[in-house]
Amino acid sequence: MTKLPRWSGKEILKVFKHAGWRLDRIEGSHHILVKDGIDTILVVPVHGTKPIKVGLLKGLINDAGLTNEEFLNLCYKKGK
């Protein structure tokens, strides 16, 4: 199993946007993402270049309805 990336919030946002999520609003340093047809929201912290911790990233991936492998495929399709 491939390890999840240690990327900043900005880089993670790009992957979720590629998966169809869109930015709804920004509250401080937290970017709120929504997706049509899904009641769940994703809250991605963006603190400069500070990487998102693996546990939080796993939770975001799960909340988005993706598997780790699907997320990694999106990362590579995006050109990261």
Describe the protein in words.
- The structure is a single chain.
- Strand 2 and strand 3 form a beta hairpin.
- The chain has a three-stranded antiparallel sheet with strand order 1-2-3, with helices on one face.
- Helix content is 39%, strand content 25%.
- Helix 1 crosses helix 3.
- The mean pLDDT is 91.
- By secondary structure, the chain is of the alpha+beta class.
- The chain has one domain: Metal Transport, Frataxin, Chain A (2-Layer Sandwich).
- It has three helices and three strands; from the N terminus they run H-E-E-E-H-H.
Question: How many whole angstroms does the radius of gyration measure?
Answer: 12 Å
In the predicted model, the low-confidence regions spanning at least 5 consecutive residues are: none
Q: Helix fraction?
A: 25-40%
Q: How far is the first residue's CA from the last residue's CA?
A: 18 Å
Helix-and-strand structural type: alpha+beta
The topology string of helices and strands comes to HEEEHH
Q: Can you identify the CATH class?
A: Alpha Beta
- Beta-strand portion reads 25-35%
CATH-scheme architecture: 2-Layer Sandwich
CATH topology: Metal Transport, Frataxin, Chain A
**Total of DSSP H or I helical runs spanning 4+ residues:** 3
Mean pLDDT: 91
| Main sheet record | 3 strands, antiparallel
Major beta sheet, strand line-up: 1-2-3
Overall outline: globular
Total domains: 1
* CATH superfamily annotation: Hypothetical protein
Please count the beta strands (DSSP E, at least 2 residues each).
Answer: 3
